[in-house]
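2024-03-11 09:14:02 INFO worker-7 job=invfold-0412 stage=load source=structure_tokens
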């Protein structure tokens, strides 16, 4: 049986993306993207349901004050229901794609043994390729999607690497680049700030 003094709990996540371990980071990615797309999907679905209700009832518009009251009451309920259904549909799809991207990024981090922008770019391009194939995109649209995912992945990866570097973490290419440019000699160790 292990003694309490033998148990080591890692609390220094400077070298992790967003300074979070993988499980909470996956949760953060999926929940935040799902909430955002739920709102966007609910707005889009509500507007579509509103137009659909108007088109379905244009030939029988109410003529009394009470009729208009029930018309709008029914329309509002239908719009709310259509928006919520559409929001959940959008959120579910986005959650799946975000989970695929974040899991791929984390797996590449572990397989390569380093956290850098290359893993983010590979995960973004790979997810975009699967997305394009799954949705049956044309060759031209697939190229455009892959090009966009390359640029976005590179931007996100560079921002994450900059955040890791700013918090005192280690990014191999930044260490090599800065050490070579400042001293002319590559220094393999970087002093991490205490605390």
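2024-03-11 09:14:09 INFO worker-7 stage=emit residues=195
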């Amino acid at each position: 049986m292990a003694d309490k003094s033998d148990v080591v709990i890692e609390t220094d996540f400077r070298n992790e993306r967003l300074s979070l371990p993988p499980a909470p980071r996956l949760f953060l990615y999926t929940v935040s993207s799902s909430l955002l797309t739920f709102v966007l999907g609910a707005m889009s679905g509500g507007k579509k349901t509103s137009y659909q209700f108007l088109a379905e009832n244009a030939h029988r518009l109410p003529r009394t004050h009470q009729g208009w009251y029930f018309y709008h009451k029914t329309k509002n309920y239908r719009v709310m229901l259509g928006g919520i259904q559409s929001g959940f549909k959008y959120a579910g799809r986005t959650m799946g794609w975000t989970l695929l991207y974040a899991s791929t990024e984390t797996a590449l981090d572990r397989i390569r043994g380093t956290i850098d922008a290359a893993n983010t770019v590979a995960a973004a391009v790979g997810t975009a390729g699967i997305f394009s194939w799954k949705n049956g995109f044309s060759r031209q649209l697939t190229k455009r999607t892959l090009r966009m995912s390359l640029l976005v992945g590179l931007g996100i990866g560079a921002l994450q690497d900059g955040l890791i570097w700013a918090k005192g973490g280690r990014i191999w290419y930044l260490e090599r680049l800065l050490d070579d440019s400042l001293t002319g000699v590559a220094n393999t160790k970087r002093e991490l700030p205490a605390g």
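2024-03-11 09:14:09 INFO worker-7 stage=report msg="The chain has five helices and no strands."
2024-03-11 09:14:10 INFO worker-7 job finished
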